[in-house]
Amino acid sequence: MASLRSRILHFSCLAVVLYVGMLWSWKNTGFPAKRRYGENRSHEGMITGRGPTLRSDLSPSFTTNQASCDGPVTNFVFIKVHKTGSGSTFLVLARFGRNHGMTICYPIHDKHRRLSYNSPNLDRSACQPSLGNYTLLINHAIMNKTAMDRLMAPGTRYIGIVRHPLEHFRSVFFYENQPAKDSVNPLGKYLDSKVNYKPGRTGMGKLGKPVCQQKNFQAYTLGFPRKLFGSRKKSVLEETLRTVGSWYSIVLITEYWEESLVLLRRTFCWTMYDILHTTRRLHVQRDPKKSAPLTDKQIETHRKITPIDYLIYDYFNRTFWERTTKEGPEFWDEVVYFKTLNLQVNNHCTLSQGDKVFPSGKWSREFLADSTFCEELDWTTTQWNSALLLQLERQNEEISRKQAQIESE
């Protein structure tokens, strides 16, 4: 494990060197203007229906483990765990869903765009109506495999995300509480007050009551049964972990988010264009009180408060590293390539007003980054939800038109 993490640090440094080289190379290379691909449609100032502009005479480059891919996975659920970097992940997945014509299950009742939160119950009545099958679910929802399999199109794949429990707790705590002016370490002070904490039978408050985001909340969102949060039976917990883990095609790790995106790309047979993302951080903590270190005793107290979150994080973190090891050394070369390319794309979108063709490479096809691409790269969650809703409306209109045509024949 330590050697792998050292390797990441090494590759990150290498990425900076490669980035400078690529910046000089691409800046001094002339590319012909390309014809735009896809359909542009405007709605309240937004452009939808876009895909990557690719040269038709170029064959895509795939890694060895993708040679047998039949096509990209375009039917999935993302379990959007609060305060795990899931907002940034949403932006990547929403862009993919729009570009590939996916049909979103969009919350119809909740103004906060949550499908299910205090309860995992879910059916079609929770979504904006669709005349076809839902193929995309990326807003907040509690994992309910049985209900989601009924709701979604056949063959749905599942994506999860987890964050180290202590960092997740820190983020949730300061999201809900503003630091007191007279407190140097408000989080540590709070944990000191919980030093004698003893979890109840459920480990998350009373069943049937609103859930607490500070107690096993990641495990709950990912589908770990709430009734087992107070269990002390190691064999039961381990078997349940394996069951929950089997539901997911991949679980992203917040601390290794870009590495996770590359693994997602390989797992779902996507292109590197599909996982490009903005480098603008959505939430930045600048108050030193929010990053004050904790004592060993305070950390141990936190483990007592949310033990199942630690259990599930350790499980998915371990299986993540096992999978990256199986991918082989080329995986880390691809991570360096991706980080460098993504930096270059963001640099272009930030500093340039023109079009730029990014050449094909070992892990990517040639594509055009134009003003529309750059604008969308910086879109918010609200903008992407609006674009996906517009796409849903047009899909319903098309299905209605075809049905009417059949009935008239």
From TrEMBL:
Keyword Metal-binding assigned: no
InterPro entries: Gal-3-0_sulfotransfrase, P-loop_NTPase
Main subcellular location of this protein, as a coarse class: Golgi
UniProt keyword Cytoplasm, yes or no: no
GO annotation, biological process: glycolipid biosynthetic process
GO molecular function: galactosylceramide sulfotransferase activity
Transmembrane segments: 7-26
Family of this protein: Belongs to the galactose-3-O-sulfotransferase family.
Annotated protein name in UniProt: Galactose-3-O-sulfotransferase 4-like
Species of origin: Branchiostoma belcheri (Amphioxus)
